[in-house]
Every structure is written in structure tokens, then in C-alpha cells.
Amino acid sequence: MKRKILAIALGAALAAPAVSAGTVTVLTSFPKELTTAYKKAFEAANPGITVEILNKNTTASVAYVRELPEGQRPDVMWASAPDAFEVLASYKLLQSAPEVINKSAPAKIGSYPLNDPKGMYYGQALAGYGISWNTRYLKAHKLPEPRQWTDLVKPEYFGHIAISSPSRSGTTQLTVETILQGEGWEKGWSQLLQMMGNAAAVTDRSFAVPDGVNNGQYGIGIVIDFLALAGKYSGYPVEFTYPAMTAVVPANIALIAGAKNADEARKFMAYTMSVPGQQLLFDAKIARLPILPYSMLKPPAGYPVPQDIAARAKVQFDSQLSGRRYPVVISLFDQMVTFRLKELQAAAKAIHEATAALKAKPNARGSELLAQARNLAYTPLVGAENVKNEEFLELFRKSRRDVAVSKQLTGMEQMWSEKARANYERARQLADEARGLAK
Amino acid sequence: MTASTVSPGSPASPGTPRALAGPRIGLGAWLAFGLILAFLLLFLIVPVGTVIYTAFVNETGSLTVGHFANFFGQLVFRESFFNSLGVALASTLFASIIAVPLAYLTVRFEFRGAVLIQTLGVLPLIMPPFVGAVALQLIFGRSGSVNLLLDDWLGFTIPIMDGLVGVTFVESIHYFPFILLNLVAAMRNIDGAMEESALNLGARGWRLFRRVIFPLAMPGYLAGAALVFVKVFDDLGTPLVMGVTNMLAPQAYLRITSVGVDDPLGYVISVIMIGFSILALWLAARVMKGRDYATLQKGGGALQKRRLSAWESVLAYGWIALVLAVTLAPHVGILLMSFAQVWSFSVLPDAYTLAHYATVFGDASGMIGNTLLYCVLAAGLDVVLGTAIAYLILRTRLPARQWLDWLASAALAIPGLVLAIGYLRLFKGVHVPFTDKLVIHSWVLIMLAYAVRRLPYALRSCMAALQQVHVSLEEAAQSLGASRLSSIRRVVVPLMAGGILAGFVTSFITAAVELSATLLLVSTESQAPMSLGIYLYMQSIAGRGPGAALGVLAVVVVGLGTYFSHRFVERSRVTTSTSTKAGA
Questions:
Q1: Residue B197 belongs to what domain range?
Q2: What are the residues whose beta carbons fall under 8 Å from the beta carbon of A210, sequence distance 6 or more?
Q3: Which residues of A touch B384 (CB under 8 A)?
Q4: Considering only CA atoms, which of A202, A122, A197, A135 is closest in space to residue A164?
Q5: Which among A35, A284, B314, B569 is least surrounded, fewest beta carbons within 10 Å?
Q6: Residue B361's domain is classified under what CATH number?
Q7: Residues B56, B59, B62, B67: is their CA dihedral positive or negative?
Q8: Would you say residue A299 has pLDDT above 60?
Q9: Is B264 helix (H, G, I), strand (E, B) or coil?
Q10: Parallel, antiparallel, or unpaired for β A94-95 and A220-224?
């Protein structure tokens, strides 16, 4: 059997084409339409260089680069989530390549820097977050079109909203953080928890949300713009809007340290930020926002203008603050929402019903109970003061491999989990009681 | 006419197998044992060990069980454990309800299209879980065809795709083929004489099935049911796409794959899942212990085929039609998707097109070739290893032979991602002999990952098949002067053929839809198999149609493969039985 394996291995070695010089290997999580368009255009403009696309999801990409020896790694990393680039940079797996930056692009979009301040990765396209909905679904369920995040807390949207978990999707984490920075910690969480009480699902992949909205499984999704727009331009009955509380942030590209063909890789990176490279983003199947000003490009009529959205946006996004409390926010969200969705939904339903009943037949004691119920269900388990406490934040940054740290953290998560469950259960009881009083 | 006996405590029971050639253990057995052990160590235990040792060490690298203590302190985990257990048990039950009648009706009765039905019955396995769930959402989901129609006509909907119920539903119709395949193989192996004796003694109908046929097919049923249980218990894809996170596998996955977080708790869960899976398989083995399922006669004819009376046919065909309609719904869904222009919140797509097939046409041939190459080699390796391990366990007295089974079965519970990271880590910088190519850039590693991950399936089928072959058939061959090796080759393996094929088919099919290890191990586009191609297409809005088209092609390719292997076995069965008769 050993000999058989060896023979197969030898056969494979002989049969497989060697990667020749002049090949740029691009590690990306972007959809095929986008990568194929860039591969074709770049190869046509640079005869002799071939582009090899290696498509992996972000998690697999990071693991893949980490496990490969220097000189054998892919050349370019190209993805949305800034956290993946941060992780790669922290393992010293990126090298800076400032010469690829297009000087015509602005330094900042709104208040968000286009390129990594440490110079390890660069903005290549822009994305904003917003609300997308299926027009047929809303019509069938007789629902109005939502415009702002605050619309999504309304009782009529109960069971119609989908979001992906911020611990799984860097884009959702930015959305959550935008709301928290725009409304303030306590008020932001209260709004988020009310929205999530209306949620039908918290999905694992960020793509599952636009997909579910496209096929009508969910009515409303909290999504990144290009996924919704690509659906709309492909003929699906979906619409998309940017709420006032949004942030426009870059999707990134970086040169991997120890890359095989660094020179060709730099050419490819520069191409993605050049005028022809940026023009490709307008393709209906890609539907992304470019970093270059529209005066240099030919945008289709009615295409969203990132600078306008950023200018309209009410929130001044602070990426430092976001990075500091990142582990706390995602962990709290998972314990209070993702893993407790059933209990949160039950509480939200009871509160909606009690609110309607009390509106029809007011009762002072009932209103008091209802206020208590809302307070229990929609208050974050970590206070605004606590999240500013450096010691508290530091705990989340320590290595979980240390049993003592891990014990403290799991103890904390356990406490959040139990408290959230108890609070939702109590809120449901109080709301039911309040509704009983309205009779 | 010697028949098998249920003889508790007899030395011939599989738990304490009867050794063939007395107490001496041949050199060949040791060699086989050594080779298999080396394979498992090199491609399973050591790579996985390099990853999950994190569960047992502290930050400084010293040993600790603290992480396990932390695990059991968490409410979410305890809840996840019981959810996983409940879903696995319920799915095994429902999968049995679907599979047992299908197997019984098609094997026991004159049935038009029995092979077709058995092939169709395997189709659910071919669907990658994420595609199956997408297609099922379109049919049974909140706004799926069925619920839209129900809502229109009757004003209510059935939330069958929600929560744990939804997971159980999808798992049952996805994994029942494990039971079907193994049960059909086992029932075909039953000696017709057993049935005749039972009939002579007055057993009929239900009693005959319950007291004679089903017990004799028990090894096959248990092999399938144990697989369903373990597979559902460890399954990640289905709960994830259904959005259910309060189960063990998603909890482990979410913790292992959070970017930049090195959380040992994820590996703790993996270790617990491995332990529990082995426990389940051990329990299944316990049930079999002390019983002998072997029958002597093989060529003499299998179970008689009977004709159904008119109303029985109506009932039987009706049941089969219903079962197939539900289990094939994902395939109908994906077929429609592959032709659909836009399908959104409507019973059927708005308009149809052939464009998606044109899109994938260029990509498909290379991917089909890769899938066939990797999966045939992997499944071939699996049945060779599976037969060898089964033989060593059931027919020799090698010390620690049972460990081969436990080690191989541990692969069931290991997330593909963990195995793949282990490979990349273990073979870092190792070159393929005589070349400057890295092992990790070679497709052989993908194939080996498939073989290791799907070995437990082939192993269960091979074990079940060998349990049904009576040891005296080999003794007879050896007393006639056949060497051990040639008695295995000429007697044992041909008699196990049905079970080995079942193992090959399960390994092949499930390897064809493997994704998690593939995603990490593919190092150039030209290495991509179909499962990866479908996944990549399905990751984009405009790619759903082409992805579905590629999915349809995958189902057709793998379905044809299954159909022809059934045909092949049917034909060789006929040849064997005629030659036996001629010889007698």
C-alpha cells in the first residue's frame, strides 16, 4: 500500500504543472464574477503574467497562510473584513507595499482612513451597510418598507428580519459597532436587542442573509451594499437603502510576506486601484463602490456615490474604539442574542402583544410592569462604564490558552448566558402579566 | 443444513472472534496491522494531534484538564450536548422509519424498478449539505413552495424547517441512505434456507420479518444506524446553514474558526465529540456481542422474492412514492434552480433559461475529472483498509486489534478543518520525493484527507459484511489446502462483495460532497473538485444558477456511478450463483 501511495504521489508530481515565474497567486474570499473579471482584464493588460485565483473563505485563508512556509505562500490577500488583515499583520504575514497606492484616491472616506494607518493593507473598494428587503415578501405580508434602523424595532416586523452574527462576519461587527457609536453604548444596545427580538434568524455566514432575502425566506436583511445591489441588478425583487446611521468602509488588498512573486503581485495590486481596475467595479454582477472619485470614472446612471453616503452618515466612526472593544462586543452579542435567540424572541413577542393590549385598554399597573419587562429584556449586561474599563477589556485580549484566563472568560460568558436567559424569561412573564391586566 | 445460531457466550461470537489457525498469529497479520497502524498514525492521529493538543495544555505548554472543567461549567455547552444527543437519536429513528420499509420492500418482493429505487434512495447523500438546505428552504422553508401553497389554500403554514425540528428533518432525509445501503446489503446476504425453515415452522408475514429476517440483517442495520447516529451527532453543515448554533458541532466550529482567536474550548468540544462517537460505536458493538449472525450458505439462493397482492402493491408503491417525493425534494429544488432565471417568494421560478449550464460548461469537465479521481482512489483505499481491519478484528487474535477500529472511527468526529490544518502543519516544508514540489501542494493530500475522513463508513460496511460470513467457509477452504491469503482472496472477499460495495459507494458519495478539508487543501484552481466549484458559485448572488447547474451535474455523475456499481454487483451475483450451481 505504501508503494501505491508513493507511486500516486510521484505520478501527481509529474502531472501537476509547475507554477511558473510570472504567476500572481491571489488568495481571496470574493465571488467568482469579481475575480474572473479582474483576472481577464489584468492578463490582457500585462501579457506574460498569469493570475491564479485561490478562493477560500476568510478563516481558511488565514489558516492557510499561517501554515505555509515562507516562499511558498500566495502573493496577494484580497478580502473585505479588516480583522483578517489585522490578524495576518499581527503574525507578521504581510509586507508593506506603499508604491501600489493610487495617489488620486482620497485619504479618508468620511472619518474612516482608506488605508491601514500602519501601512500594511490598502483600501481597494468601498462598502456601506444597510437594509435590504424583498418587495414581494413585504407586499404579501403587507409590511411598509423600512428606511432606518429604528424602523426595525417596530412590532410589525416581528419574525421577518435576518442578520449574521458579528462574531462570524466582520461586516456585521462594523454595522453593530456603527449603531453603538452612533447611539451610544446603552441606547445602541437597547435598539439592537429590540431589533434582534424581531429577528427570524442569526446566520453563521454573512452571505446567507442576502441569499435568504433574495429567495424570499426572510423579508428584511441587514447586509453589506454590494450583495444586495448585485441581487437587485441580477433581477431579484429586492431593494436596498443606506440608513442615516451607517459607515462606509474599505475592502482591502495586501501583499503577503514571503510571497513568491512579489513584483508581479505589486503590479496586480496597483492595477486593481487604477482607473480601468476601478471601472470594473461598476459591473452589475459586482456592484461595488470604487475608491477613486467619480470624475475619473464612468459610473452608470443612479449609481450610489460613496462620498455622499459618508457625508450624510450621522456617525463619526472611530476604528480605534471599535478595535479596542471588539472581543467584548462580539462575545456579548453571541451570549445575549445568537445563543439565546429563542428566549429573546419569546420576550419580544410578549412585549409586543402587551403593548398592543395596553394601547387598546390602558392600565397604570400594566404599563409599569411592561416598562419593567422592556428594561429587563433590552438592557445590555455590560454597562457603559465597564466597557471603558481598561482592566476589563484587557482580560478579553489575553490568551485563552491560559486555563485561569479561560476560566475567567468562560465564567463571564456563563454568567451573561444565564442572566440573559433569566432576564428574557422574567420579561416574558411580566409582559404576559401586563397584558392580563389590560383585559 | 446447518444454520446460524444465536448462541450467547459461544466462543464464535464476533466480540471474541474465533481465530482461524489456532493461537499462532501469522506474520502477514502483523504486517497488515503494522501498515494500517502506520497509515492511521501518519494521516490521522499525528496531524490531528498537532492541532487538538491545545485542549490539554496550558499557555506555558504544561498539561492540564482545566479546559475540560471550564467546558462543563457552561450552560450553553450542556444545553448543546443534550440538543445534539436528542437530534441524533430522533434522526436515527426517523431515518429507520424511512429506510427499513424501502429496503424490505425492494429486496423481499418482486418489484419493478427495485434497483432504480435503491439508487434514487442513495441520491440524498450526494447533495452537499449547504446546497441541500438551500434547495429545501425553497421547497419546505418559511416562504417555500409548500408553505406558500398551504397559506394560499388553507391559511396556515408548517414551520418544519425551524430550529431543532428542522435539523432533525433535514438530517433524517439526508442520512437515511446509510441504513438503506447497509440493510439492503445485509438482507441480500441472508440465506434463503433460513426463511424456508421459518416458513416450515409456521412463521408468516410480520412475525417472519420481526423474528427471523430483521434479526438476521441486524449487523447491516446496526452498522447503518450507528453511522447515522454518529454522523448526525457530529454534523456541522446542516445546523450551520439552518442557523441552529446550540449544538456541539457548531459550538466547536464557531470557536475554532473565529479569526485570530485561539480558543482551546473548541478543541475540547472536538475531543468530547470524538469520545462520544467512539462510545456510540462501542455500544453498537456491545449489542452485537455474544451473537452470531454468520450464515453458511451463500450460492444457494438469497431470500425468495414474492409477488405483492393488488392492494399491497398500491400501498407499497404509494409509500415509496411518498418517501421518495420528500427525500428527493432537494433534488427537484436544485433542478428547478439550475433552470430558473429568478426564483423568489413564489411557488415556481418566474422564467426558465439554459444559460447557467452554458456558464458552467467550461469549468465542469476538469472538476468532474478531479472529483472522480480523488473519490474513486479514496473509496478504493477505504475498502481495502476497511476489509483488512475487519478481517484483523474478526478473524485474528492480534492484541489491540480493536484499537484499529477505534482509531479509524475517530475520524468521524474530527472536523475537516482540523484535519486539514493538521496536514498543513505536519507536512510543512516536506517535498514530494525526487521533486522540488511540496507535499502540501499536491492533490494526493486532498485524496488522503477524503480517504481518512470516509474510512469509518467503509469500515462499518465491511465489518457488517464479514460478520455475516461464517468462519467455517474459510476453514473449509484452508482444509482443502488454500493458503490464508488465497482463502481471503477467493472466498472471503467475494462473499463480502455486497458489503464492500456498499462501503465503496458510501465512501465515494460522501467524499464527493466533502467541503471543509477541501477548502483548505486545494492549492490551485486546477485541483478543485465539484464540491468546491459548487460552493464557490453559490457564494455569489449571480452564481446561484450556475452553482445549481453544477450541482445537478454532480448528482448525475455520482448517481450514474452508484447505479452502475449496483448493476455490476447484480450481474456478478447472477454469475456467481450460476457457477455455484454448475459446480454443484
A1: 36-294+320-426+441-583
A2: A132, A221, A223, A227, A228, A231, A238, B541
A3: 1
A4: A202
A5: B314
A6: 1.10.3720.10
A7: negative
A8: yes
A9: helix
A10: unpaired
Interchain contact, A81 vs B259, CB within 8 Å: yes
Number of Cβ atoms within 10 Å of the Cβ of A305: 13
Other Cβ atoms less than 10 A from the Cβ of B21: the count is 15
Number of domains in chain B: 1
- With vertex at residue B462, the alpha carbon angle to CA B456 and CA B468, rounded to the nearest 5 degrees, is 140
What are the residue ranges spanned by the domains of chain A? 18-124+251-312, 318-439
Give yes or no for B487 touching A (CB within 8 A). Answer: no
Dihedral angle over CA of B474, B480, B486, B487, nearest 10: -10
- Is B425 in Cβ contact with A204 (below 8 Å)? no
Task: Choose among A14, A235, A342: nearest Cβ to B341.
Answer: A235
Could you tell me if B229 lies within 8 Å of chain A, comparing CB atoms?
A: no
Provide the grid cell at A276.
480601468
* Nine-digit cell string for B531: 464540491
User: Positive or negative CA dihedral for B176, B177, B179, B183?
Assistant: positive
d(C-alpha A222, C-alpha A210), whole Å = 8
* Mean pLDDT per 10-residue segment, chain B (584 residues): 37 41 67 92 91 80 80 81 92 92 82 75 78 82 85 82 86 88 81 77 76 81 87 81 81 71 76 80 75 59 70 85 87 90 83 86 84 93 94 86 85 81 83 78 92 91 85 84 82 84 86 84 87 83 85 85 72 54 40
Q: DSSP labels for B56-119?
A: GB-TTS-B--HHHHHHHT-HHHHHHHHHHHHHHHHHHHHHHHHHHHHHHHHHHB--TTHHHHHH
Give the span between the Cα atoms of A45 and B397, in whole angstroms: 69
Q: Is residue B25 part of a domain?
A: no
Q: Give domain status of residue B435, yes or no.
A: no
Grid cell digits, residue B204: 408468516
Angle CA B233–B249–B376, to nearest 5: 70
Output the pTM of the full model: 0.79
Alpha-helical regions (H) of B355-442: 355-395, 401-410, 416-426
Is residue B22 included in any domain, yes or no? no
- Residue B313 belongs to a domain: no
Could you please report the per-residue DSSP string of B270-294? HHHHHHHHHHHHHHHHHHHTT----
User: Is residue A304 exposed (0-12), middle (13-18) or buried (19+ Cβ within 10 Å)?
Assistant: middle
- Find residues 236-295 of chain B whose CB sits inside 8 Å of chain A: 240-241, 243, 245-246, 250, 254, 257-265
Q: How many CB atoms lie within 10 A of CB B526?
A: 13
Say if the ipTM goes beyond 0.95. Answer: no
Question: What's the gap in Å between the CA of A140 and the closest CA on chain B?
Answer: 9
The string of DSSP codes covering A201-246 is EEESSTTHHHHHHHTTSSSEEEEEHHHHHHHHHTT-SEEEE--SS-
Decide: helix, strand or coil at residue A120.
Answer: coil
Domain A18-124+251-312: give its CATH architecture: 3-Layer(aba) Sandwich (3.40)
